[in-house]
Amino acid sequence: MKHVDLFNDFLKDTVNLNSTRVEQLETSTSAIENFIKDSDWEPEIDSWMAQGSWAHKTIIKPTDKGEFDADLIVFVHPVEGWDADKYIDRLYSVFSANGVYTDKVRRWSHCVTITYENDKKIDIAPCIVNRGGYQRLEVCNRTTKAFERSEPRQFTEWLVRQNSYSGSNSFRKVTRLLKYLRDIKTTFTCPSVLLTTLLGYRIYTSDQGTGAFVDTPSALKTIVARLDDYLQLNAQKPSVTNPYLSSENFADAWSDTQYSNFRTVIHRYRGWIDDAYNESARYESIAKWRRVFGDQFAEEVVIEEARSISKAAWEAFNGGVSTAALMARDAAVDLVTLVKNIGSRALPSGFNILPHMRRPRWKHASQQLTVQIKAALYRSKGYDNLGPAQSMQVLRPGNWLHFTSTTSAGFPFGKADYEVQWRVTNTDIAAARANALRGEFYESDDGNGRWEQLKYRGVHLVEAFVIVRRTHELVGVSSPFHVVIE
Predict the structure, then answer these.
(1) Phi and psi for 91 in degrees, rounded to 5?
(2) Residue 370 CB: number of other CB atoms within 10 A?
(3) E strands in 318-472
(4) Global pTM?
(5) How large is the average pLDDT for residues 459-477?
(6) DSSP 18
(7) Which domains, and CATH codes, for the chain?
(8) pLDDT digits over 293-337, tens only?
(9) Residue 125, beta-bridge partner list
C-alpha cells in the first residue's frame, strides 16, 4: 500500500527542515552577506547564490539533532596576483577578527564555515568570475592552491528542471527521503551532491504527467528502481558528472569500497520498498515501510493502532452476536472483557501482525521447522511454580511466565546449534500509557527460554524465532502465544 497521507506527514513532521529554521537561515545569511560587503575583504563582489541542498530544496532536518548544512556562494572578480588559497585565507581572517564570528569560524579546502551550535553550519565559498579574461566560473582549492572549474548556476537550474518533470515536487521529496534514510540507517556513504545528481539523472522529460510520479511513494518506488537498475549494470564505480561540466565528477568522493557497498545496499532497499508498496494488508504494509525508514514513520498512527485495539475489537463485535447481552452496557468493555466472554474470536483482524511489531531481519532457510511455545506460571521470577499456562488463558497481573521453545516432538532446540529470539508485543491502553508497547526482539534469558512479568491489562503476544547459529538463517517461527492479563 502507498499510504500517501502517512508519507506527507512523515515528510512534514520528521524529514523536512521546518520553516522557522529556514527563516533563521535566511536571516543569518543576510547578516553574513552584509558583514562581508562592509568588511575590508579585497575582492569585488559580483553576486551571491544559495547552493547545495538549500538551493535545491532538498535540505532535511538533522537526524542527530545537531546542525544542518547550508552552502552560500559569493561570486567575486579576480584580484591580480592572488592564488586560490588567498581568497579563503583572507576571508577567514576577516571573520576571525570580528567578535561575533571569531569563535564560530573555521576554514577548509574550498570554503569558510560559520557554525551556529546546535542549529546550522553555513559554508561560504568564493567563486571567481572570468579570471584571466575567460568566460568561466572557478572555485578555490586552498589545499592545492588551484582554481577549479564549476557551474553552480546551471547545475541548480538542471535540478529545478528535473524536479518539474517529476511533478508535485516528487524529485525533491524522494531526495529528502533517501538522504534521511542515509543519515538514520548509516548503512551507506554518499555525499548529498552525488546522491542528488544520481537521482536527477533517473528522471526524464517523458515522465511528466505519468503514474510513475503520481504521488510520493510511487515516485520513490520508480526512482529507486531506476537507480538500482543503473547500479547493477555498473559493477565498477561509474562517473557521475555535472551535466554542464564533464570535468566535475562527483563520484570522485567515493572509494571503490564505498561504491560497492552503496550498490549492495540500494539493491536491498529497493526490495524492501517494492515489498512495502505492493503489500495489500494495511498493518503489514505500514510495518514494512517502517523497516525501510525506521520507527518514526507513521509513529503516531502505529501507537494509536496499538493502544486502541480494544476499540477496534469492540467495533467489529458490537451487536454481532447475542453474547453482547452478557455485558452490561454501562460497563467498560475492552478486549480482555471480550476474550473472557467469547475467547479468541474477540481478536480483531490483523491482531497478529500489528504495525509496531519489528519484522524479522534474518533470511529464511529453504526448509522450515515447526516451533512450539510452552509456558509455566510462577509467583515470582524463578520461584513457586504455579503450573503450566495456556495461550488465551486469562491471568492475573504480578506473576511471571517462563516461556520455552520446543520442536514438534517437544524437545528443546540445542543451544549449541540454534539461537532463539523472542518477539514480545504489548497492546492496549495500559501498556501504551506506560510507553511499553514494545514489539522488539529479545534474546533468551537462559538456554532458549524467556522470562516475562505480567504487568499491563490487555492481550499481548510472545513469539519464538529460531535461528541457525552457523548460517544465521531463520528456520522456524512459532504461532503467537497470546498472554491475556486482566
Answers:
(1) -65, -40
(2) 13
(3) 363-364, 372-380, 383-389, 394-395, 400-406, 418-425, 438-443, 449-453, 458-468
(4) 0.88
(5) 98
(6) P
(7) 19-150 (3.30.460.90), 155-278 (no CATH), 307-486 (2.60.40.10)
(8) 999 999 999 999 999 999 888 877 765 444 444 444 434 679 999
(9) 73
